[in-house]
Automatic annotation (TrEMBL):
SUPFAM superfamilies: alpha/beta-Hydrolases
Domain of life: Eukaryota
GO molecular function, one term: hydrolase activity, acting on ester bonds
One example of a Gene Ontology biological process annotation: lipid catabolic process
Active site: S177 (nucleophile), D345 (charge relay system), H374 (charge relay system)
Family the entry assigns: Belongs to the AB hydrolase superfamily. Lipase family.
The Partial AB-hydrolase lipase domain, residue ranges: 43-101
Listed InterPro entries: AB_hydrolase_fold (IPR029058), AB_hydrolase_lipase (IPR006693), Lipase_euk (IPR025483)
Keywords, sorted A to Z: Glycoprotein, Hydrolase, Lipid degradation, Lipid metabolism, Signal
Protein name, per record: Lipase
Secretion signal span: 1-30
Length: 404
């Protein structure tokens, strides 16, 4: 997310310049690509802090190879007898490293491990810590033919299946931003929901028609997502050689990149601007142009629906003229939910969060922080005491840890 903000903050004045830059970024060889498990997220960011960490690869039904990490406590408490499994599901243009970018005392992945949870870390298709596809190359346009609905119905479905097969235990899901829309969509599917013990959603999104971030609204109005697809650009990769150079230029002497975050997410009360350079060692990760198009469709249409191909292609793909909606009332009433949301969040707007709450069959546990913005729920310097302690109280009060 940070990298996304920096890139879009370039002082461009015409759609033509934006288009040319997108073409250059998308066609330049990436600096950061797949790492082998021996040089993966465990080795680079988790084990150096003294946490035991294992790398796994699992395959989705449609052939993507996803990376998962499993993290244990430094003290060894959970070496022989692990607590409930918790799957951390990252946001847009992020990956599993997002949960470990601050100190051991501030990062949710480390905090959960030290509290005895069996921590599993998700990395969706296309991100650096996943491992491609069984037959497609990342240079193939078909590799990028997906949106968050596929991340929900294939990636999250497979990750929960795999973790259940490894632990023989139902799973707690923690999602942030895109990770929450994936979770909510997935939990409407009985075969996925039956493997889940509960879900905690940070900056939850499903409906997006009250997004107020000015730069996002500008891009939506310009229909930039549609222009990108029309130009045949399938991958959005801001870690290309040119993309990285542009981010460096914009963040050193030209613009305050922390301030640029506000134009995308709204105000963030407690984001540590001094750590931006460190965050950029890992973020942003690639995503698909089609995914951005799907999210912008939702802003324009005010629906929580599958991808809209247009009436006739919808008829071919879905058997109906309009894309099917994700019916939140199908999430099991017995499934415990927790939501943390903020009054300054311009992406997970409080009106849209209330829309989501109105459609759920149960009443989630709620944590509302008026001063918090979108990124605060992940990277606030006060997140442990403001957010994570409350969330872990939800896990502990639920207290169940079962198989089915």
């Amino acid at each position: 997310m940070v990298g996304q903000v920096i890139w879009w903050s370039c002082p461009m004045r015409t759609p033509l310049i934006i288009t040319l830059l997108l073409l250059l970024i998308s066609t330049t060889t990436a600096n950061l690509r797949r790492d082998s498990p021996t040089n993966g997220l465990c080795t680079q960011l988790i084990e150096p802090y003294g946490y035991p960490c294992s790398e796994y690869i699992t395959q989705t039904e449609d052939g993507y190879l996803l990376g998962l990490q499993r993290v244990s406590s430094r003290s060894g408490i959970v070496q022989n007898q692990k607590g409930p499994p918790v799957l951390l599901v990252h946001g847009l243009f992020m990956a599993g490293d997002a949960w470990f970018l601050d100190s051991q005392e501030e990062s949710l992945g480390f905090i959960l491990a030290d509290h005895g949870f069996d921590v599993w870390v998700a990395n969706v298709r296309g991100t650096r810590w996943s491992h491609g596809h069984i037959s497609l190359s990342e240079n193939d346009k078909e590799f990028w033919d997906w949106t968050w609905q596929d991340l929900a119905l294939y990636d999250l479905a497979e990750m929960t299946r795999y973790i259940f097969s490894m632990t023989d235990s139902k799973i707690y899901i923690v999602g942030h931003s895109q990770g929450t829309i994936m979770s909510l969509a997935a939990l409407t599917q009985p075969d996925i929901a039956k493997r889940v013990e509960g879900a905690a959603l940070l900056s939850p999104i499903s409906y997006l028609d009250h997004v107020s971030a000015p730069l996002v609204l500008r891009m939506v109005k310009m229909r930039l997502d549609e222009v990108i697809l029309a130009l045949g650009i399938h991958e959005l990769n801001f870690k290309s050689e040119l993309g990285t150079h542009i981010m460096d230029i914009m963040c050193h002497g030209h613009l305050e990149c922390g301030d640029m975050l506000t134009s995308i997410t709204g105000g963030n009360c407690c984001f540590n601007n001094s750590r931006v350079d460190f965050y950029l060692k890992y973020e942003p990760h690639p995503s698909s142009s089609k995914n951005l198009n799907h999210l912008f469709q939702m802003i324009r249409q005010g629906t929580f629906s599958m991808y809209d191909y247009g009436k006739w292609k919808n008829l071919v793909n879905y058997g109906k003229l309009q894309p099917p909606t994700f019916d939140l009332s199908k999430i099991p009433k017995s499934l415990p939910l927790w939501m943390g949301y903020g009054g300054a969040d311009a992406l997970a707007d409080v009106i849209d969060v209330q829309h989501t709450l109105n459609e759920l069959p149960s009443k989630p546990y709620l944590l509302y922080l008026e001063q918090y913005g979108h990124i605060d729920f992940l990277l606030s310097v006060n997140c442990k005491q403001d957010v994570y302690d409350n969330m872990m109280g939800f896990f502990n009060s639920n207290g169940k840890h079962s198989s089915y």
